[in-house]
Every structure is written in structure tokens, then in C-alpha cells.
Automatic annotation (TrEMBL), chains A, B:
<keyword id="KW-0032">Aminotransferase</keyword>
<dbReference type="GO" id="GO:0030170">
    <property type="term" value="F:pyridoxal phosphate binding"/>
</dbReference>
<comment type="subunit">
    <text>Homodimer and homotetramer.</text>
</comment>
<dbReference type="GO" id="GO:0009450">
    <property type="term" value="P:gamma-aminobutyric acid catabolic process"/>
</dbReference>
<dbReference type="InterPro" id="IPR015421">
    <property type="entry name" value="PyrdxlP-dep_Trfase_major"/>
</dbReference>
<keyword id="KW-0663">Pyridoxal phosphate</keyword>
<protein>
    <recommendedName>
        <fullName>4-aminobutyrate aminotransferase</fullName>
        <ecNumber>2.6.1.19</ecNumber>
    </recommendedName>
</protein>
<keyword id="KW-0808">Transferase</keyword>
<dbReference type="InterPro" id="IPR005814">
    <property type="entry name" value="Aminotrans_3"/>
</dbReference>
<dbReference type="GO" id="GO:0005739">
    <property type="term" value="C:mitochondrion"/>
</dbReference>
<dbReference type="Pfam" id="PF00202">
    <property type="entry name" value="Aminotran_3"/>
</dbReference>
<dbReference type="InterPro" id="IPR015424">
    <property type="entry name" value="PyrdxlP-dep_Trfase"/>
</dbReference>
<dbReference type="GO" id="GO:0034386">
    <property type="term" value="F:4-aminobutyrate:2-oxoglutarate transaminase activity"/>
</dbReference>
<dbReference type="InterPro" id="IPR049704">
    <property type="entry name" value="Aminotrans_3_PPA_site"/>
</dbReference>
<dbReference type="InterPro" id="IPR015422">
    <property type="entry name" value="PyrdxlP-dep_Trfase_small"/>
</dbReference>
<dbReference type="InterPro" id="IPR004631">
    <property type="entry name" value="4NH2But_aminotransferase_euk"/>
</dbReference>
<comment type="similarity">
    <text>Belongs to the class-III pyridoxal-phosphate-dependent aminotransferase family.</text>
</comment>
Length: 492, 492
């Protein structure tokens, strides 16, 4: 099936998709069947020229290529030169249903959307009459098991930071009981000093990524370049398991590693005064940090320890959430007896925020968890359509299936290239699949080779590659990807 | 002209606007000529019922009333019960051109908007081909004098925080010179410790408001309820002048107060090691903090001191910016010899971010000022239309004129109610007008009375009222407002 050859020709006779079973074909009758490259390399000359103009006014040094979103369709992203690439990166894991999805275009053209855009409300002060319904049918219908309330924000960073604020206010209220704020608290808060601005902390994990604003960046532990020169809170971090692959061959070592991390977590907690760690924040898979997984047992152990020490548990599903991981929410894999206290989201939902259930996580006084906009109804409308389309087309189960197929094929392929790639991970985790390369230079070379045969793909960590396709990435797309990967690995 | 009477009847025969000179009439042929109240009080029964449902899933305890945005038009906001109120609060100063503005509706219906919504890009990695043009014709065409670059964010809070990050990276790079990061910096940054995560600070001013995320909240000094229980950076604050009104009667006292504040600012700066204060952040008018003004001489003095001490100056125009203050940017009133290093914006532009000119404020390495979305092209499209409409209709000059009329009328009115209201402020500052009441209870009573006669209006500080109408608030609207205010003051 794998036929190594060039990808530089225009679309060729690829096996057509069985329309009856393909959601992508139903959404995108004109989706290409293969990448199509019309310039010798990507970015091509038009991308380069447009980028030079853009660079005069906007920091675009991270640009892959200038994109023609009008011509992008389904799983294929088009660049300014007319190249069409299979996209398994999807705007850093943010495109849920493919480019120019017709259901989302209908939502974008709706009178509700027009009103949400041109009459942007201060949601907590002047809520639109339909906002409750939009939340109920969308974001809240998608709420993780055990949660039934939502706070809406604007980005993954502020989703996490507002969750942190909820945790700090909750812990302070618990300690304060029914008492009012003291004069000392009222005065010291204005001076940024305890007890009003207390020394409490959010504990995060080594290699975790939770955003780039000041609170979230203090919990981000991915790479120095994310953190250098920015003041940070003196908050603790704990080790995250470094599992060895294949998992089946390292059962004992990995169990020991997870036990070590749990013990170290508990040791760090005990070093801190009781209740001085308000919450932990943890990703189901540390995505930016290198797609680091841990077992359900590890997360069950963490949950037990947080309950024992009266620490809240915030699960950051900004990258893992909304269907790509084999469940709607990745932490559903854990089978926790007590659900997380808060679950944050953004990216594939366009809308951002956090879920919770304990009413005490909503501060007793208004105007504490508050800001001008408190979210954005235009994004809540998009999230509702995204949720409804995922449900209607059973996209979580479909993504789990294509992920299983992809993983199986890659397992076989990687056995043929043991020097180039290793540590394939994400089995039974939908299309949330990653692997590692020999070193950062080889990883970057592989990313470039994949692009040169028409696949847009991203790295993570120092020497890993991550797959982040949309939820309408199907077996036919997987086959295109697999052929490109085999070709690229042989050329390495 | 002021005819105290009830406002509870349906629209009455109000003098019609001279269409030839009214932008509001051109935009909004069906805009009401007066408030219209159909329920005995606001919120009415439908608002209350809808709010009870919404409260089950969303923190809406700050709600004024549930809003019918579909029926809102121009300067009039409609609630769920069918009441139509003249809006001089405008979603906490966020509605630039009135409700359901036809030019913005056209932008909302454009193919560019549809694409921006459904194909939301990771702007720094996959910039749309038209993003440079959208910025050039919109946000950058509106750039304050002396700035020519923009960084786009999502809210006022993250506009300020990304500006703070730019300041910290700039100061560290200046000190580091051409050297690379040291191993100690690389290692300590990952531990949230200096020197990698340094002890530098942003200095802000007493009663300033700059947002509610962790970095911005550390610079916010408005009220304890905004800050309580949230850990904060140990950053310094300086006093902001407390001017006495009328200004003409307190020339000497106010000059002394501003000199005192400048001296105290310099004293605080000198207490800190050189370059440990990376930047100051200051609002042209401290809006949330009570509409506190200071003279151009004060800001000129601040600018001179920041230059002398090698401290960056960030002007927070989140609330003051975009045309309501008599200039497009409020700090244009100051006639600074050297422009601010960064100017932040959000609210009326829908798009958020900061302006700058020094290329060194863009870090030398990519991926440092970076995040998944780096802004939102759907908001940049709205900002472009807002800017173009402001220019086309000369709305800054018009708002300055109506503000001058309003201020003059209020000055006369307040002379008749010296016990109820005082410290009228905002002369020559467009419609950015405020005043103080006897005490917080009387202020809140005035806000309620204004609402009961059909004017939606907001407070600021502890006992002040602020006007924040749109830029299409004209003399006819001012007359409706003035009559409602006279009636309410008499009833106090």
C-alpha cells in the first residue's frame, strides 16, 4: 500500500472515499484526495513576499507559510501560492471540523452571530436573552461527567487563570468560614501583600504547559524560551512520569516511575503548610511539553492525594479536549471515582473557559470572578455548532477508530525505521498520536520533509512530532499521511 | 428646556433630529427619540425570569437586566420586557458605533468574516494572506502618533500583560547586551527563580485598573474586592493626583498635589535598584477607579522621569481610547515630546492589543511573545470598520462637540443641585464626563432613578457616575439624557 514517490504533481488518481461512510465527503465534496504542490518548496515565493510585508507590522517570525483560508477545505490547507497540504496540525490543534465547514459557515451567517459580533455584550451585566440556551445546548451539553456549570473566558491562558482565581477564592473562603473580610485583609490586598493577597500557590508538573500570561506562565514548565525574563510566582512543581515505550515492554519500569512521581508529589505537598497549595493543574497529555502520557492509575493516585490534602484538582484540557483523544474529554479515560474540581477548555471549541460543579467555586460575592466581557457569545455559538456536529456525526467514535487504524499502521512502519523514530505513543487515544526522533535536528528535518511532500505537521517537546488532525480526518486521509511519512522516513 | 416629568409612557413627540447633520439618523432611521418603558420597573418580570434560568449555569449576579440585542438600535438598548433605554454605559464603554450598526452588520455578513470565524487561524504560524492589509487599514491606521507596530491580543487584561512581557524582555535584553542567555538563567527560569525569572516590576498608580489576570491584577489598585484572596507580585505603586473641582477654583492646590505625586513617584523609583522597575502603566483617566483625571503637565512630568530613569511608559487606553475623549487617543491631550513606549487598547475596538514603535520591543527571538491565536482576525475586521466609520463621519470631532455641549449644560444643572452632585469632570474631554455624589448610597440611588426614567448608566469608584455613550451620541440624545438627569436629581 505504501508507494514511496514524489508528491509534487497535481492531484492524482487516489482511491475515492466511500461517500456513504465518509463525513468528510458529505461536508466537503470538493476536498482534494491528495496534497498538491505547485511550487518547488513551501513556503513558496508568494508566501515569502506576503510575509515580508506582514513582518513590517506584525511579529510573524514563527510563520510556516501565508495561508489562503478561502481555498482551504476540509483536511486540506491551502497556501498563498496555491499549494494544498494535508493538515495534521490544524492551527495548533484548534480546527475541530475541518476548513470551511458548511455547518459552521451557516452559524457564521446566522442573525444570532451577526448580533453577537456587532453588539458584543458585557455578558455578566447585560446577558442576551438567548445566552442561557446557547450555553445549555452547546458548552454545557458537552460538560465532562460530574460538572454542570461553566465560566466562559477568551483563551486557554485566561481559562486556566480564572480557574486558578476560583481555586484561590474557594480556599480562602473555606478557611475564613462565615466571617467577613478583615480590615487587615482589605488593606493588605491593596498593597499586594498577605494576608489579603496571600502566599497560596498552584502546583504544576515538570514539562506542563498552561499558558503564557503571568499566572499561567508561572505554572508552565515546558521550555526556558517560554519563561525567560518574565517574573514568576514562587510556586512548586512536581515531576511528571517519563514513560518508556513500547509500554508493554516496560510495565515494571513505568509503574515504578509513576510511583516515584506520586511519592515525590506527596513529599512536596507535605513540605508546604496545609492549604497553602490551593490547587494542582495537570494535562491529561502534556502536549507542548512533548506529548507525555501517564496511566489512569497515576491520575487516580493524584486524585486521591488531592482529596486527602484538600487540594483542588484542575485538569487542563485546552489541547486534549473536544473529541480527538478517543473520548470527548481525555480525562474520561481515567475513570476517577471523584471527578476533577475544574476542567479547562479552549482551542477546538473556539470558546474558552472552565467547567465545575461545586457552587462554592463561584465566589460568594459578585464582581470577584468578573471582567468586561466574561466570554464571547460569537464563540459560544461556534462551540454549540461544533458540539452538535460532533454528536450528530459520532465524530468521537469515528476519530477513535481512525486513530486505532493509524496507530496500528504506524507501529508496523516504525518497526522498519528503528533508528529514525521511536516511542510511538497514543494507543487507544484517538488521533492524539506522537513519536520521538533521534534528536531535535532530525525531528526538524522530518517536519520539513513532510511539508515538502504536502503534509503540514507540527513538533512538540524537543525532539517529538505530534498529530493533531481535525475530527473529520478519516482512513483515506490517514493513508495519504502514512504514505507521506513512509516516504519521508526512507529519505531521512 | 428641562421639563421634569415621568418617563414611563411610550415614545412621545420629541423634537426630531435634523437628519442632514445626524450620523445617528443616517445609521438608524428607526432609532427611538426617547426612552420607552413598558414595565413598572427595570428589570421587568421577563428579565427576572430569564435571569433565574441563566443563573443556574452562569454567574449573572452582576446583571442589570437581560437584554434583547435584536431590538436594540443606535443609542437605545432594549431589555427582554420591551423597555427601551437610552444607553450611556454601552457595555462598560465597549460599543463604539451604537447597537446594530449597519456598517458593522455588513462586515459581519462578509465572506472575510465568515472565513475568520470558521477557520480561526494561529495568526503567527499561519497568517491569512489579507491579515497585513486588515491591520494596515484598521488597527494600524488608527495607531497613536509615534507608534507604527501592533501586537494583537484578546482582552484588555491580556493586552496589558503582553505589553508587560514586552517590557520585561526588553529590559532584560538591554542589560544582557549581545550576550546569550546564561545557563543559570535557563535553569532558574524553569524553577520560577531569578535570574531567569527576575524580580523586576511594573509600577502602577493608586486607584488604577489594568485588568484581572495575575499580572494585570497585580497592577490594579482600584478596590479590595477586585484583589482579595488572589496572590500578587510585590510590585510598587505610586500615588495618583486627587484633584479638586472645579479646576479653575483649585489651580494652586491641584498643582501642588500633582507636584507631590511626581516627587513621591521619583522617591519610590529611587528606592528601587536601577532598572528593577521595567515599566510604569498608567491610564489617561482612571476610569474604574472613579474617573480620576490629571493634567497634561503631570503626565509630561511622568514621561520625563521615566526617560531619566530608563523606565518604559505603558499608557493603558483600554477604556479611554477610540474617540470618546475628544481625541482618538486620550493621551494625545498631553503633547508629549517623546511618545509613550506602548499604548494598550481593547473595548471599543473589539480587537485588543498594544501599539509600539521601537523594534527592540519585539523580542530578538521568535516564540517569546507568542501564543496559539495571537489575536483574532474576526475582531481585527470589526476594528477596521469601526476605524473607517469613525473617520468617514468625523466622529471624534462630533463627540468632542456634543461633549462640550453636555458638559456646559451639566455645569449649569449641577449649580442648582450642589448638595447632590459635585466634582463634575471631563471638560474638553469629549463625552468622557463624570461626577461624584454625596456618598455611595446616594450614587446608587441616582443610578436607579436614572434607570427608572429610561437611562442605562454606570458608576465608577465608590461614589461617582461615569458617562460612556457611543460615538453616535448626539445633541438630541444629550437633551434626553439631561432631562432625565434633572428629573432624577430633583427627585433625590
Amino acid at each position: 500500500m505504501l508507494r514511496p514517490r514524489g508528491f509534487t504533481a497535481l492531484p492524482r488518481a487516489w482511491p475515492s472515499r466511500a461517500a456513504s461512510s465518509s463525513v468528510a465527503a458529505a461536508y466537503y465534496p470538493s476536498e482534494p484526495v491528495a496534497p498538491s504542490l505547485v511550487t518547488a518548496s513551501v513556503p513558496g515565493p508568494k508566501s515569502i513576499e506576503l510575509n515580508q510585508h506582514l513582518g513590517a507590522v506584525f511579529d510573524n517570525r514563527a510563520s510556516y507559510f501565508v495561508t489562503d483560508y478561502g481555498r482551504s477545505v476540509g483536511n486540506y490547507i491551502s497556501d498563498a501560492d496555491g499549494n494544498q497540504l494535508l493538515d495534521v496540525y490544524c492551527q495548533i490543534s484548534s480546527i475541530a471540523l475541518g476548513y470551511n465547514n458548511p455547518a459552521l459557515l451557516a452559524t457564521a451567517a446566522s442573525p444570532q452571530m451577526a448580533s453577537a459580533l456587532v453588539n458584543r455584550p458585557a455578558l455578566a451585566c447585560f446577558p442576551p436573552a438567548d445566552y442561557g440556551r446557547i450555553l445549555q445546548d452547546g458548552l454545557l451539553a458537552a460538560a465532562p461527567p460530574g460538572t454542570n456549570k461553566v465560566w466562559t473566558a477568551l483563551s486557554g491562558s485566561c481559562a486556566n487563570e480564572t480557574a486558578y482565581k476560583a481555586a484561590f477564592m474557594y480556599q480562602a473562603a473555606r478557611r475564613r468560614g462565615s466571617l467577613d473580610f478583615t480590615d487587615e485583609e482589605l488593606t493588605s490586598a491593596m498593597e499586594n501583600q498577605p494576608p489579603g493577597a496571600p502566599d497560596r500557590a498552584i502546583l504544576s508538573f515538570d514539562k506542563g504547559f498552561h499558558g503564557r500570561l503571568f499566572g499561567s506562565l508561572s505554572t508552565t514548565r515546558s521550555k526556558p524560551i517560554h519563561k525567560l525574563d518574565i517574573p514568576a510566582f514562587n510556586w512548586p512543581k512536581a515531576p511528571f512520569p517519563a514513560l518508556q515505550y513500547p509500554l508493554a515492554e516496560h510495565v515494571r519500569e513505568n509503574a515504578e516511575e509513576e510511583a516515584r512521581c506520586l511519592a515525590e508529589f506527596e513529599r512536596i505537598v507535605r513540605l508546604h503548610p496545609p492549604h497553602s497549595i490551593a490547587a494542582i493543574v495537570v494535562e491529561p497529555v502534556q502536549a507542548e511539553g512533548g506529548d507525555n502520557h501517564a496511566s489512569p492509575a497515576f491520575f487516580q493516585g493524584l486524585r486521591a492525594l488531592t482529596l486527602e490534602h484538600d487540594i483542588l484538582m484542575i485538569v487542563d484540557e485546552v489541547q486534549t479536549g473536544v473529541g480527538a483523544c478517543g473520548k470527548f474529554w481525555a480525562h474520561e479515560h481515567w475513570d476517577l471515582a471523584v471527578p476533577p474540581d475544574m476542567v479547562t477548555f479552549s482551542k477546538k471549541f473556539q470558546a474558552a473557559g472552565f467547567y465545575f460543579s461545586d457552587p462554592a467555586l463561584q465566589p460568594a460575592q459578585p464582581y470577584r470572578q468578573f471582567n468586561t466581557w466574561c466570554g464571547d457569545p460569537s464563540k459560544a455559538l461556534l462551540a454549540r455548532t461544533i458540539y452538535q456536529e460532533i454528536t450528530r456525526h459520532d465524530l468521537v467514535a469515528r476519530t477513535a477508530q481512525v486513530g486505532a487504524y493509524l496507530y496500528g499502521q504506524m507501529e508496523q512502519m516504525f518497526a522498519r525505521h528503528p533508528a529514525a523514530v521511536h516511542s510511538l505513543r497514543g494507543e487507544n487515544f484517538g488521533t492524539f498520536i506522537a513519536w520521538s526522533c533521534e534528536n531535535p535536528a532530525k525531528r526538524n528535518e522530518l517536519l520539513m520533509r513532510m511539508r515538502s511532500v504536502g503534509v503540514n505537521i507540527g513538533g512538540c517537546g524537543n525532539h517529538s512530532v505530534r498529530l493533531r488532525p481535525s475530527l473529520v480526518f478519516e482512513r483515506a486521509h490517514a493513508d495519504v499521511f502514512l504514505e507521506a511519512l513512509e516516504y519521508s522516513l526512507r529519505a531521512l
